[in-house]
UniProtKB/TrEMBL annotation:
Top-rank lineage group of the source organism: Bacteria
Record bears the keyword Signal: yes
Signal peptide: 1-24
Keyword field: Signal
Gene3D superfamilies the UniProt entry points to: Type IV secretion system, VirB5-domain (1.20.58.430)
Organism from which the protein derives: Pseudorhizobium pelagicum
Stated name of the protein: Conjugal transfer protein
């Protein structure tokens, strides 16, 4: 009976050994580590996406604060003296009248014609002595006074016409401010408006200088009259 038991037991042992060997070759999945690895991969992917978004935002910011915006600020550069009358284009006072013709420089032709019509309407004599090309102090003073009157007349007419044009230009520019696509465009627009405001202020200073020049001519005329009076009285002595 013992021999029979031995032969029946041996196959089961062999089968058990074979099954154990086969089970040892099957891979084992660590579910905890797999979960952590999956979470790490997802987190890394989100970090990469965030970095891409940050890079895109930095590039957009760089574009918004750098580069040329001439197409945005360029239309504003002629608000002050780009059209119409300009005091800075006028020649010096002694060059306003050349051969009896009023010359106010390039771009001021209509203003010169208006001032010439005003001077001609006064029907002034060419000189107090009646002499042509006289060097008498009275004649020279009178000629300077005519230049002053012509210049102030041109300044007044030109400034009035330019005021209308500049008001329209600044109102039109005001409607476009804020339409720039980015901050650099808005800054350039604001800078150009400041420049144009400065040029406009400079034009006003030029007009005031013309007024001061007219006072100087008036004082010069008074001095000449005083001097001539003194000379006339000295002849009687």
């Amino acid at each position: 009976m013992q021999r029979l038991v031995f032969y029946f037991t041996l196959p089961w042992v062999l089968i058990a050994v074979a099954v154990g060997s086969a089970a040892a070759q099957v891979p084992v999945i660590d579910r905890a580590n797999h979960t952590i690895a999956k979470q790490t991969a997802e987190t890394t992917e989100r970090i990469l996406d965030t970095n891409k978004n940050i890079l895109a935002a930095v590039e957009d910011t760089l574009k918004a604060v750098s580069g040329d915006r001439a197409d945005v600020a360029g239309p504003l550069q002629d608000l002050a003296i780009g059209q119409g009358f300009s005091v800075s284009a006028m020649p010096p006072l002694d060059g306003v009248l050349t051969g009896g013709t009023l010359d106010l420089g390039a771009g001021n032709g209509e203003v010169a014609r208006a001032a010439t019509r005003f001077i001609n309407s006064l029907q002034l004599v060419r000189s107090l002595s009646g002499q042509t090309g006289s060097d008498l102090p009275g004649d020279r003073s009178y000629e300077e006074l005519i230049r002053s009157v012509a210049s102030v007349s041109a300044l007044t007419h030109g400034a009035q016409a330019a005021t209308v044009l500049r008001r329209s230009a600044f109102e039109s520019a005001g409607r476009t401010v804020g339409e720039a696509a980015d901050i650099k465009g808005s800054i350039d627009q604001n800078t150009q408006l400041q420049v144009q405001s400065g040029l406009t202020l400079n034009e006003m200073i030029g007009v005031m200088n013309g007024a001061v020049t007219s006072l100087q001519a008036q004082n010069q005329r008074r001095l000449t009259d005083i001097s001539n009076s003194r000379k006339a009285l000295s002849y009687g002595d």
